[in-house]
Amino acid sequence: MENIQVYAQLFDMLCNSFDGAKLGKKAAQKMFYFFERKGIDLNLRYGIHYYGPYSAKLDNMLHILESEDYIEINTGSSTHVISMKDGVFVDVLSGEQKQIATAVIEVFAHKTPLALEA
Question: Residue 1: pLDDT above 50?
């Protein structure tokens, strides 16, 4: 199994930086795609999907993170909203990986999922 703490830390960075908005599954898929394109090797095997790049492996990892109490997925609205559970802290990314993730978040976190598809 992949190191779920790497994914947990990336989700933590996203949830805390997503420009005051809620992080949904579509936006998360796009952001992780950008993480990989910029150099964080996550081996997510993206394919073409109606809403842009999609990784079934990332979707599975979401459910693993939820079952391990790293994240919560709220399905009560039109989108699945992802949030970190209280008290979760992981710091396993290298300095370079943190820089890449921060750069991607700075450029794309303020965009809507629709804008990220383009």
Answer: no
